[in-house]
Amino acid sequence: MSNPPMYENLVPVDRVQHKNTRMKSGTPVLGRVTHLNSLFIAVAEFADASLEYPVVFVRIGQTAEGQRPAIAPLAVFGLKQGSNLFIDGDKWTGRYVPAYIRRWPFAMARIEQNAEDMALCLDMGSGAFSETDGEPLFNADGEPSQLLLNAKQFCEDFEREAERTRQACELLQDLNLLQEMRFEAQLPNGEKLDVDGFLTVNEESLSKLSDEKIVELHRNGLMELITMHRLSLRLMSRLAQMYVPATN
Predict the structure, then answer these.
(1) Could you give the angle at the alpha carbon of 69 between the alpha carbons of 66 and 72, nearest 5°?
(2) Taking Cα atoms as reference points, which of 103, 134, 99 lies closest to residue 18?
(3) Distance CA 164, CA 182 (A)
(4) What is residue 154's DSSP assignment?
(5) Counting beta carbons within 10 angstroms of the beta carbon of residue 53, is it exposed (0 to 12), middle (13 to 18) or buried (19 or more)?
(6) 3-state DSSP: the chain helix, strand, coil percent, rounded to 5?
């Protein structure tokens, strides 16, 4: 089982193995995202995320020959690799925190690579779990505590929204609406950056869709998502201006 970004050692929750495990409150999470300049967001988050961050699409994963790669939306936090402009010390400065961050140190994961079923997992490398401090994952009778039930519900909701997001991205590909993105930026110190590797909705391709397809996009809510995505791209310039020149 591989570990996604932010996670070190995902282990499936086990009633016996973790009967004495507790979760400590206040475990720092921002250190896990300091060097991430983007993260996955679900379509349900577009309304909030697109007001704060550019929302773009990227190709993900490996595919067999002849298959098209999967597409996923990302919220962009910085224009440079390893650069997150929304962390100031121990504070997240954005008004919206993506659900991907909020679910940590829990996550749903497939125990076997091609398995359909997913299990709730703990990041045992997070430093958030102990057998002496914090709130228990299981009650004295061996039943899951409210903490664990809440975490499971949040992670299951996250996976449902991730699946809905996958379906939306499949439709964008079916309609051939995505194009390679290139953004040229000049930072306050005069440094010039070429940002690429992202995908955006092609306005020309969108305008050439039939009336029937446009109506379909409005009815399934995808047109609203496309609009939020396109408007959020204006925030790329704001990101460029957030790089503070180094002082001597």
Answers:
(1) 165
(2) 134
(3) 27
(4) H
(5) buried
(6) 30, 25, 45
CB atoms within 10 A of CB 160: 12
Give me Rg for the CA atoms of the chain.
20
Query: In angstroms, rounded to a whole number, what is the distance separating the alpha carbons of residues 83 and 96?
Result: 18
Tell me if residue 131 falls in helix, strand or coil: coil
Question: What whole-number distance in Å separates Cα of residue 208 and Cα of residue 164?
Answer: 25
Is this model's pTM higher than 0.85 or not? yes
Task: Assign 174 to helix, strand or coil.
Answer: helix
From residue 100, how far is each of 2, 29, 39, 162 by CA, in Å?
16, 12, 7, 10
Give the Å distances, CA to CA, from 30 to 6, 61, 124: 9, 25, 17
In tens, the pLDDT along 73-103 reads 999 999 999 999 999 988 999 999 999 999 9
The residue written with tokens 């697109």 in the block is: 50
